[in-house]
Amino acid sequence: MRKKIVAGNWKMNKNFEEGMALTSEVVNMVKDEVSHEKVTVILIPPFVHVHPVAALAKGTPVLVGAQNCHQEANGAYTGEISAGMIKSCGATHIILGHSERRMYFGETNALLASKVNTVLSNGLTAIYCCGETLEQRNANKHFEVIESQVKEGLFHLDAEQMKQIVIAYEPVWAIGTGVTASTQQAQEVHAFIRQLLVAKYGKDTAESVCILYGGSVKPDNAAELFSQSDIDGGLIGGAALQSRSFVDIAKAC
Ligand code: PGA
Fold first, then answer.
1. Best exposed site among 28, 52, 133, 233 by fewest CB in 10 Å?
2. CB-based pocket (< 6 A), ligand 1
3. Is 170 a catalytic residue?
4. Which helix (H) or strand (E) holds 213?
5. pTM of the entire structure?
6. How far is ligand 1, taken at its centre, from the CA of residue 215, in Å?
7. Residue 133: burial class (beta carbons within 10 Å; 0-12, 13-18, 19+)
8. How crowded is residue 242: how many other Cβ atoms within 10 Å of its Cβ?
9. Is 49 a known active-site residue?
């Protein structure tokens, strides 16, 4: 059985005080209310909060991640942050290829393939995002789009490396819109991604990779989504900005 993951992507939200308050609340609630055998809870704040959030979460089951990194190890890249720096601040996970980064910052599958390498070479786990736009879904191109995102971003890895990857399927039309993919729509794409992994890496590796759903997950739709055989938890945006709703989603696993 794959252990489920519920990861909260704060995006560009929360000042320092607010971020620390949210972290303390989540850490305390998770300790009291969430079964650690069933689910791993990860907080993914903006870069500047990674170290203090990790310090507050230290010694608890809550893990910490970052929302992006640069593809190079270090150097003259003003304003950028490396995977090694993120690791040294106490994080274990890095989101790569979120649709907002693909859309607003022009991140391509090829660039993401090199970011995946730098994350893995630092011994961290990459949460690799994929997902189609509404236009692509309406044109019935969603499987094609997801296949190329997964293959071009990840399929240069060997089977051992693939085990360090978490995939997040996030249909762009469901992110921050309040529209969730139906359970059937989500499970269908998750099963498709799992099949791509089976074809390339074999059943054992494919069965070990967590595939998260993201896009307007809320406490009242989480349990049904997470009950699907290929949905291994969620990448949560809006509902992760509030401790009660985020922890309730973790409890839905
Ligand atoms: P949302 O965001 O839960 O606010 O839709 C999800 C995400 O972008 O990861």
1. 28
2. 9, 170, 175-176, 214-217, 235-239
3. yes
4. strand 211-214
5. 0.97
6. 5
7. middle
8. 14
9. no
- Placement of tokens 């909260």 in the chain: 8
| Candidate from 94, 133, 217, 249 with most ligand 1 atoms within 8 A of CB, to mutate | 217
Which whole-number Å values give the CA distances from 151 to 156, 157, 196, 197, in the listed order? 8, 10, 8, 9
User: pLDDT band at residue 1, thresholds of 50, 70 and 90?
Assistant: confident
Domain that holds residue 145: 4-251
Report how far residue 236's alpha carbon sits from residue 234's, in angstroms, rounded to the nearest whole number.
6
Q: What contacts 185, CB < 8 A, 6 or more positions away?
A: 171
Q: How many domains does the chain have?
A: 1
> Which residues have a Cβ under 8 Å from the Cβ of 32 and sit 6 or more positions away?
none
Determine the residue of 170, 172, 177, 241 to mutate for testing ligand 1's pocket, defined as the one with the most ligand atoms within 8 A of the Cβ atom.
170
The CATH number of residue 150's host domain is: 3.20.20.70
State the Cα–Cα distance between residues 25 and 130, nearest whole angstrom: 30
Q: What is the pLDDT of residues 194-228, one digit of tens each?
A: 999 999 999 999 999 999 999 999 999 999 999 99
Neighbours of 110 (CB within 10 A): 9
Q: Which helix (H) or strand (E) holds 103?
A: helix 99-104
